[in-house]
Specification:
The complex is a heterodimer. Chain A is of the alpha/beta class. Chain A contains 17 helices and 22 strands. Helix content of chain B is about 70%, strand content about 5%. Classes of the chains: A alpha/beta, B mainly alpha. The structure holds adenosine-5'-triphosphate and magnesium ion.
Amino acid sequence: MRSPRCAYSAQFPTPQVPIPLSMTQQTPIVSMRGIHKRFGSVLANQGVDFDLQAGEIHALLGENGAGKSTLMRVLYGLYRPDAGSIAVDGRPVLIRSPRDAIALGIGMVTQHFALAAPLSVTENVILGQEGRLWLDRKSAEAQVAAAAQRFGLTVNPRAQVRALSIGQRQRVEILKALYRQARVLILDEPTAVLIPQEVEQLFETLMRLKAEGVSVVFISHKLSEVTRIADRVTVMRSGCVVGSVSAAQASPAELARMIVGQTIMSVSKPRQLSAGRPMLILDDVWADDDKGAPMLRGVSLQVNAGEIVGLAGVAGNGQTELAELIEGTRTCRRGRIMVDGTDVTRASPARMMQAGVGRIPEDRHASVVGDLTVAENMALEHLDEFGRCGLLDRARLRRHAEQLIAEYQIKARPDDRIRTLSGGNMQKVILARVLERQPRVIVISQPTRGLDIRATEYIHGKLLDQRQRGAAILLISEDLDELLKLADRIAVIYGGRIVGVMPAESATPERLGLLMAGMQHEHEAGGPDHGAQG
Amino acid sequence: MALKVERRAAPLWLQPLLPLLAVVITFVLTSALVLLAGANPLRAYYHFLIEPLSSRVSALEVLVKATPLLLTGIAVTFAFYGGFWNIGAEGQFLVGAAAATAVGLNAHAIPPWVALPLMALSGFAAGMAWALIPALMKTRLHTDEVVTTLLLNTVALLLVSALLNGPWRDPISQWPQSPEIASTAILPKLAPRTRLHLGFLIALATALVVSVLLRRTVFGLRMRAVGLQPKAARFAGIPVERMLLISALASGGIAGLAGMVEVAGIHYRLIEAISGGHGYTGILVAMLGNLSALGVVLAALFIGLIDTGSQTVSRALGVPVYLGEIIQATLLLVTLAVLLLQNYRLRWERRG
Ligand SMILES: Nc1ncnc2c1ncn2[C@@H]1O[C@H](COP(=O)(O)OP(=O)(O)OP(=O)(O)O)[C@@H](O)[C@H]1O
Ligand SMILES: [Mg+2]
């Protein structure tokens, strides 16, 4: 039944335990066979078979663009497959729209949420399911509260969705699906937008759902999460299923090999050459958040040449504002920022770049102009160099882009609109644009969010290269594994203050976790370079 | 069957055809009205589109009609390109016309090669000044420029009205119109026995300059980035506020220049109906022309053709002149709808 295009299982007889239909004890709750879906010239799914058992948590893995979201969108009725069949409870079904999927007990939380911001949580949950003409708000709220309680989805039923955090919105989406009596819950990269504590909470919810017999499809790029929470793992590559394995039998390393089709070497941090001179100094820096409330309250931090300083912290404790200060897009209220001896407090983005700061922000889409081409975006930060008497030298623009595309192995053409690039390739474009300038200071936020293993390793490797070159790097990340792997020192931010700085060797997730939760306040112990004074 | 909307860009080959499609749809839609007016739609469209081109005088009249639209279209294009939603070309046109008149009325002792540039300059400056207010309000106070530019149109019209009923009222006829401007302040004719004047070439030159500026220069690319995504542009070190200010001022200036051209090329005086909506039509021209200079030239010529044609049609078939205006208005709506097709696609989906 599998398309001849997809013959990976023969090529890679890895630890998978293929389960033929006859061997399964029960009929799968969902069974997809030979799913094909084509977008223009891209074959997003080419003959995919996928089985979901009742009451299991089934992880779906694969590189960016492997076709995971496409397959699940087919199941939820968002896309019509070009070929293939779907059976629910062993009965063939036709799913033409999410409405059909919901009727069959299938719910999905997509990568981009579909909530009505001005409405309350309850209103969002019951939207489209009111049933009667009159809305019984009281009993609806009670129902929503009860469901929230039962599954550990803590959220106030009366709150306006506009006021909720990303993690809370996700809970509303899950509640919405459960309210519609979903027996199958599809979560497309749910943890990519969550902070560690919220991930724990989500996993708690998933375990409770599983206990109640709900089946979960869980898409993620984080293998450690997958081996923890999932019962089975299905790996996709280039629109095909590579294989299905029991999660208990698979190690993250083996899964990684199935995903990319070859062993990929995890980059490791070489010894630090020597502690260089201080390149980035923040001295008692204060700044407001978007609403004008004080956010940073006296941050002092120092990053030396040839050093990666990791900044850990729960989202919303000031790391975004701190990054923006150094990016030149937020004004400093008080204190001083120095880059290699130059005072850049309150400098504009242009002056920050002149001072030798390379900036890779958290929100990729806010740092590139989606409708401009890859070549134009690559040159956007220093356009003057592409002018001849004010006229734009298009040929040079293109040569420059071609060179960077080759050097950074970006899957794109110079004339592609950057909006059409995958997350990993877009991040590579931004990285190339910045690193090409050989910046003395690099401030980079959430560098690998949503990226697959290969792209993640690539970016990590590039950052370590920059460290060897002597750049001072401030790495802001919510991924503790990433910080522990790359950083020389780790600083923790809590409530707009640096509450601790420690060498990476002495940092453990537990110790960082305590600091991130604001339970402890530490000062750096000794060392030649004092990172923080407060 | 169900109609579904998908976000999907139209294929590249289709994009230049979309304005053409808009024209065809408009004609189909308005043919019912033509029938109601008691005329044969095909004959009506023949008179609209072909007849004006059949004689030299009326063909040149198309260019005359297109001249102010070309300028206001370019003005609106400049603003929209940089993300400044200037709905105020009408007001900027009016103050430009008034300022040019002020110079023209006092230019008797000045030779034309001084008077005309001076008029153009003052028209441009007045339009700029009129755009400066909403531009500053946007960059400093984040006030929506759509509202402020639109409101200022009325203010400009009242200002012109006040001038014409007050200090500039024509002493001879006592009409609310200014006296004639000096003969040295009149744009030379390009062809004898027609109304075609130098303003047409000025408009073409402006279109050319703006096109090169926006499409071929570093400045233009920066402007484009600001227009598309100001946040990302600011991040990349582009001074967003300054660029917005420039696009607003250039736009206002060009609209003001359009006012000067109408005064010095056609009416030789200021009248209340000096614009008669050229500023608003400029928005249509800019959208129809897809914010490209060549597109704007073609769109202005096309609207000029319909303008000329609506007179021919009403003479030949006895239908009201307003038919031309209805067609223009319909064209605007259809164009906006069709432009959506650039990013979205309609698809029929069969229900089981
Ligand atoms: N609506 C669409 N239009 C055109 N191409 C699409 C569309 N959706 C997906 N694709 C393409 O299909 C392929 C598979 O995409 P899909 O989103 O399923 O990947 P994925 O495995 O979910 O990746 P990621 O991990 O980045 O989310 C990609 O090449 C993508 O560019
Ligand atoms: Mg996806």
